[in-house]
TrEMBL record:
<dbReference type="InterPro" id="IPR012349">
    <property type="entry name" value="Split_barrel_FMN-bd"/>
</dbReference>
<dbReference type="Pfam" id="PF01613">
    <property type="entry name" value="Flavin_Reduct"/>
</dbReference>
<feature type="domain" description="Flavin reductase like">
    <location>
        <begin position="18"/>
        <end position="167"/>
    </location>
</feature>
<dbReference type="InterPro" id="IPR002563">
    <property type="entry name" value="Flavin_Rdtase-like_dom"/>
</dbReference>
<protein>
    <submittedName>
        <fullName>Flavin reductase family protein</fullName>
    </submittedName>
</protein>
Length: 201
C-alpha cells in the first residue's frame, strides 16, 4: 500500500510509529521551579551526538492543566535541566503507570512507589532503581510542526551506572533488558544481541 499521511491510511490504527521501531524510551524526570517532582516516559527519544554527549526527546501534545505543553517540558523550560532514566524490564510497570495524564501536582515517584535519587550535577531527581541515568542540561527546544510538538535537546553532564550491570568493562544490556516502544500498545525487550564489525575494522 501507499498513502499520504495528510490524506489518511484507511487502517484501523495509525501505522507510523509501528514502522519506526524499536524506539528507546526516555523516562524523563524533572523538578519544577515550585519544587514538585515529575516523571514521565517519552518514546520519541534517542542519543544524537558523542562529543559532547547529547540526547533528545519529543514532547507531543498538551494537558488540560498545562496549556500548550506537558509537565516535563514546562519544568525544563523553568529549570533548564532533566534526567533520562533507562527503563529495565523490572521497571516496565512503573514506567507505564507514570505515563498517565496525571495532574501537575501529582508526584509520579510517589504514585508508582519508586525511590528517588538526587542528581549530582543538576537539581533534579532520578529513579534510584534505574540501571543507568543521564543527567542533562538543556541546550535547546525546537518547535516542531503541529499544535504542541517540541523537540528537547540536552547535553549529558553526568552519568550514573549501576555497577551490577558492568561486565568486562561494558554495559551489559542483556542483564538490564531495556524496554523499547513499538507501535500501537506494543513494547519489546532487549534479550539477545549480535556483533558485527564495521568494514575495515
Amino acid at each position: 500500500m501507499f498513502y499520504r499521511p495528510k490524506d489518511g491510511h484507511d487502517l484501523p490504527h495509525n501505522p507510523f510509529n509501528a514502522l519506526v521501531t524499536p524506539r528507546p524510551i526516555g523516562w524523563i524526570s524533572t523538578r519544577g521551579a515550585d519544587g514538585r517532582d515529575n516523571l514521565a516516559p517519552y518514546s520519541f527519544f534517542n542519543a544524537v551526538a558523542y562529543t559532547p554527549p547529547q540526547v533528545m526527546f519529543a514532547s507531543l501534545g498538551a494537558k488540560p492543566d498545562r496549556p500548550g505543553t506537558k509537565d516535563s517540558l514546562a519544568n525544563i523550560n523553568d529549570t533548564g535541566v532533566f534526567a533520562c532514566n533507562v527503563v529495565s524490564f523490572d521497571l516496565k510497570e512503573q514506567m507505564n503507570h507514570s505515563s498517565g495524564g496525571w495532574r501537575a501536582d501529582v508526584d509520579e515517584f510517589e504514585l508508582t512507589g519508586l525511590e528517588k535519587g538526587q542528581c549530582t550535577t543538576i537539581d533534579c531527581p532520578f529513579v534510584a532503581a534505574a540501571p543507568a541515568v543521564l543527567e542533562c542540561e538543556l541546550r535547546q527546544i525546537i518547535k516542531l510542526e503541529g499544535a504542541a510538538n517540541y523537540a528537547v535537546f540536552g547535553e549529558v553532564v553526568g552519568i550514573h551506572i549501576d555497577d551490577r550491570f558492568i561486565k568486562d568493562g561494558m554495559f551489559d544490556v542483556t542483564a538490564v533488558k531495556p524496554v523499547s516502544r513499538l507501535g500501537y500498545r506494543d513494547f519489546s525487550v532487549v534479550e539477545n544481541v549480535f556483533e558485527m564489525g564495521r568494514p575495515g575494522e
